[in-house]
Amino acid sequence: MNLPQRPRRNRKSVGIRQLSQETTLTPGDFIYPLFIHAGDDDQKIESMPGCQRWSLGGLLQEAREAYELGVPAIVLFPAIATELKSLDAKEAYNINGIVPAAVRALKAELPDLIVITDVALDPYHSEGHDGLIEEGEIINDETVKVLVKQALCQAQAGADIISPSDMMDGRVGAIRTALDHHGYTRVSIMSYTAKYASAYYGPFRGALDSAPKSGDKKTYQMDPANTREAVRELLLDEEEGADIVMVKPAGPYLDIVCQLRMETCLPIAAYQVSGEYLMIKSASQAGWLDEDKVILESLLGIKRAGANMILTYFAKDAAKLLQS
Ligand code: PBG
User: Fold this and answer.
1) Does the pTM exceed 0.90?
2) What is the CATH code of the structural domain delimited by 24-323?
3) 165 lines ligand 1 (CB under 6 A)
């Protein structure tokens, strides 16, 4: 054949393939979500095989291992005892609660590890919603006041990045104003900018026992059908002072990652959520997929779409794979 263009020439050897590679994955790309609880034992999470609800000791050990593998950041999610959950979710801003305690311990042990905290009421709310409820409605402005208290409490404990996942309107601006007013100008905000009302969160809600008792989250999380709405949320979050914007879930929403990449100069985070984790885990446990290869390919795809950083339950495993 007379073929001057032969793309295969750029794939002919390991070296050429390395030189031509467009996207690279490193442990420095990952944020490791970790579940914590108040007890002294590390509990296996039934809905998420391979993940645990860590005691404080277990958390410190796991965070250290990830950090030593090159993972720069973790994000904490608390399983709150039923008796501490309430309709006003006031445990969310208890400075002696398990999240502030974990932040203080982590920053004392591993000062250079970036500690991210989640802002939302669902783990603390007896109805499992991210906001306060009045006559069956999730009320926005009253909820934002509580989220601000939660964010300040986390900043006071020493969190490096505050991460609102609740999807109330105006919360990024309100949190930024309050942080600055209290002198926490160095504390960053990673906003869940385009967080979709997704069935892929099921296993996570099992891990925290935080599924909504009634209804769904569609009046605050986004419709999976929408792209332009994600851009609108992006523009608002930028204006309100977000430092990092997030797309969640990641794998089924790569077009959104790509779209936001074109619209913003801010770093983009993408969250490979519990359902995405579980699909890979269960298929490989059944012997149907090569787990290691699929983990790395799924993460590379998210990076290629335009994410700077990836929240993934595979952070430690992937870091190990990348080092070997
Ligand atoms: C709640 C929150 C959720 C996740 C992160 N923060 C669940 C939800 O919105 O119901 C899901 C993460 C995952 O599925 O891995 N504020």
Assistant:
1) yes
2) 3.20.20.70
3) yes
